[in-house]
Amino acid sequence: MSRSNQTSSLDKDFLITGFPNFRDQESRRYLFGAFLTVYLFTLVGNILLIIIFISDRTLHTPMYILICGLAVLDIAITTNTVPSMLVLFTFGYRVVPFAACFTQTTFWLGLCSAEGFLLALMAYDRYIAICNPLHYPNLMYNRHIIKLMAYCCLFCFFCSIVTVAVLARLSFCGPNQIIHCFCDFGSLLFLACGDVQIANYVVLVIGMSVLLIPLAFILFTYMKIIFSVVQIASAEGRMKAFYTCGTHMLVIFVFFLAVSGELIAVRIPGTSVDTRIMILIIQNVFPSLTNPIIYCLRTKEIRRSFIKTLKKLRLQVNNDRHQYC
């Protein structure tokens, strides 16, 4: 790309238009209220999980470190997109500079990919705990799991930066309207001028890698887990093992169902633009909203710690009230 094209692209602003058929003030008001509610519930649920983890030292184990990491990722994923969407619904449009738009896309790709790899790490943790319990303390200790989480995040953001760098090298000389609620990769690629075939191939290879590698690993580990659980002699032992994995399997199902739903919707002929946008947004916010609910409802250690934290807070409030009186 020539120097003049690079300069014009870097100086370019994108216009985020939102839903094509929901631009009237009343529709935008409903959308603002719905997504603000979802965002606040997501923040409260995931921050509560983090507070429970920090305040209860008995939860400072690899499995709960992974759950805490998932809560941090969920907060980051929704914070990367939902606040900008709320601004869009308030004013009806949003002008975004070139650099800011590509930064949001980079974080969107990197964070979503990191969540998939984190779920794969959680599957590995359950695999070691059930299939090799005697080696678990040597293989899965806190410092090691934190290193693995860091490596996964670095790898995912490296892939994200490479993907966006390939896109940024293209020229954006045509229309600047992004028919979406935030800067996503597909919308930016649609606006690019010239031959985008190489960019499509690069994106396809990297995208399939960060999606299929964790999915294949998760399926492999759970096949091994199921095979090991079936061999457990007592029915009580089998139920305990399945219940331990059931929460994680439900979280995995929600995440990959949301991702596959977005991929399928894009390829169904006749699907409206509004429907595709909504499905992509749901894929972005729904797992972050449901994950803390699933863990709080299905993990008795977290429920017990939550009740203990509430009792401490109530006791602290009562003591402060007595001191004030």
Q: Give start-end ranges of low-pLDDT stretches.
A: 1-10
Shape call: globular
Q: What's the architecture, going by CATH?
A: Up-down Bundle
Give the mean pLDDT. Answer: 82
Distance between the termini: 73 Å
Strands ordered across the widest β-sheet: 2-1-3
Main structural class? mainly alpha
Query: How many separate domains?
Result: 1
Instruction: Give me the Rg, rounded.
Output: 22 Å
The CATH superfamily is known as: Rhodopsin 7-helix transmembrane proteins
How many beta-strand elements? 3
Q: Note the main sheet.
A: 3 strands, mixed
CATH topology: Rhopdopsin 7-helix transmembrane proteins
The helix/strand order is: HEHHEHHHEHHHHH
Q: Which CATH top level class fits? A: Mainly Alpha
Strand content: under 5%
Number of helices: 11
Helix content: over 70%
Main location: membrane
Keywords: Cell membrane, Disulfide bond, G-protein coupled receptor, Glycoprotein, Membrane, Olfaction, Receptor, Sensory transduction, Transducer, Transmembrane, Transmembrane helix
GO molecular function: G protein-coupled receptor activity; olfactory receptor activity
Transmembrane segments: 30-54, 66-93, 105-124, 145-168, 198-220, 241-265, 277-297
In short:
It is found in: Cell membrane. The protein has helices at 3-10, 25-55, 62-91, 98-131, 136-139, 142-168, 185-191, 197-230, 235-267, 273-298, 300-324; strands spanning 13-16, 94-97, 177-178.
Describe the structure.
- The model is unreliable at 1-10 (pLDDT under 50).
- This protein has one domain (3-324): Rhopdopsin 7-helix transmembrane proteins (Up-down Bundle), CATH 1.20.1070.
- α4 packs antiparallel against α6 (142-168) and α4 (98-131) packs antiparallel against α9.
- The termini are far apart.
- It contains eleven helices and three strands; from the N terminus they run αβααβαααβααααα.
- The longest helix is centred in the middle third of the chain and has 34 residues, at 98-131.
- The protein has helices at residues 3-10, 25-55, 62-91, 98-131, 136-139, 142-168, 185-191, 197-230, 235-267, 273-298, 300-324; strands at residues 13-16, 94-97, 177-178.
- The protein has 325 residues and is mainly alpha-helical.
- Helix content is 80%, strand content 3%.
- The protein is globular and about 65 Å long.
- A three-stranded mixed beta sheet has the order 2-1-3.
